[in-house]
Amino acid sequence: MEEISPAGKKHEVFTAWAKEQGVKINAVGPARIRGRGLGIVATRKIQAGEELVKVPVHALLTIDSVRNDFRALHGDITVHGLLASFLAFSDPEKTSPYAAWRATWPTFKEFEDCMPILWPVEVTKDKHQDGEDGYNFYAFRALPPAIGGAWGSTRNFYIDWQGKTGLLHKQEEKLKKDWTTVRRVFPDAGIETYTHYWLIVNTRTFYFMPPGVKNEPPQADRMALCPFADYFNHADHGCDVTSDTSGFTITSDRIYEAGEEIYVSYGNHSNDFLLTEYGFILDENRWDSLPLDGPLLRQIHKSTQGRLNRAGYLGNYTLSREGVCYRTQVAVRTQTLGNKDWRKFIEGKENEMEEMRDESKADYFIAVRVLDGYADEATKALAGFAKYGSAFPEYPRSTLKKRWMQIAELVKEAYDNSINDLTREALGRFGGLGGLGAL
Ligand SMILES: C[S@@+](CC[C@H](N)C(=O)[O-])C[C@H]1O[C@@H](n2cnc3c(N)ncnc32)[C@H](O)[C@@H]1O
């Protein structure tokens, strides 16, 4: 059972305020939950299908809560950037109605602990060291490939894999762009205050389509801060969240015992995504996956990548517990089949015999050229934590170490679940897999 304690006075004040705004709260309340800040718990036994929280549209904080003159000052800015600017720098009178709510949000210090974007460079940048023969090679990369956007475990071979598409880099760019606009409007404003509210918006908004909008705003701009509902923590299974022109409704998905924590799901996110965007990872995550573009694309000639592109299969390759995704299977077969047979494969026209032969070759490639590299990366990172980890603050150290262990585990499970017996036997004869064997 989780370690749960009372939320405290300011949360009681806010809950009363939320009710005054028309938020309906049934059989749930906020509580402090170890390792998760605040969360929502059942105050009595709850049946499946009970409406737990209803937030009316007029209680939401959206782009419509920001006055036109304040909006106009910013010109072309994302809704995310504008809401953060409104909370951080608008006339205090405009945001004072939200004072009781704001008091319940995390502090900047709390974000500094958990959000990778605020972690010190010792954690986020690669460590390099000089080899005996003059090569400078990376010694330890603490960030997982999906977050750091880099891959490459052997000396002499350093690949800035997804390069600018790493999750952290993308987030930094978004913040930088918004801040550039806001700084023009408020030249004396501090970046720390802005970043604080930008992260509040990042971690607490719900996807919301404003009622009566004529031109659909881009998906990333459909954001709403949702009083009280923003206490819900995330799990890979959770209560149903629905929205319509009247607002948001959260309905229980199953029976809950009194005192039990109740979750919603923020989406089908991998742990790397959750860590970057929300500052935590789950122990159990059915959506967990690893990107494979780095290890795979570096093995595929540019002209073949062109062929994949034309067929609609270039990039976005992933690995889950069950094995590699279908897109990866297609990409791998550019290496194991001739062009004609590759076509047959994507058109589903192989006969049984061809399928069997083809699967063995593809499995072998996946095991040796893809999974083994990932396993190797995880083994090296874990060794790096043993050597350099003590210099890190506690939360990044324990979280990243755990994440790398999950990565190693996931690669191993993918291997066990997807590589066929024949291939395993063959690999066994060659002494097993280097990196995988070590896990
Ligand atoms: C919408 S808020 C939820 C309420 C939040 N826990 C609080 O204290 O106000 C989202 C934030 O809650 C935390 N969180 C959500 N789900 C979590 C989980 N399963 N484990 C740990 N932290 C979680 C993360 O810090 C995330 O950025």
From TrEMBL:
<dbReference type="InterPro" id="IPR050600">
    <property type="entry name" value="SETD3_SETD6_MTase"/>
</dbReference>
<protein>
    <submittedName>
        <fullName>SET domain</fullName>
    </submittedName>
</protein>
<dbReference type="GO" id="GO:0016279">
    <property type="term" value="F:protein-lysine N-methyltransferase activity"/>
</dbReference>
<dbReference type="InterPro" id="IPR046341">
    <property type="entry name" value="SET_dom_sf"/>
</dbReference>
<dbReference type="Pfam" id="PF00856">
    <property type="entry name" value="SET"/>
</dbReference>
<dbReference type="InterPro" id="IPR001214">
    <property type="entry name" value="SET_dom"/>
</dbReference>
<dbReference type="InterPro" id="IPR044429">
    <property type="entry name" value="SETD4_SET"/>
</dbReference>
<feature type="domain" description="SET">
    <location>
        <begin position="21"/>
        <end position="267"/>
    </location>
</feature>
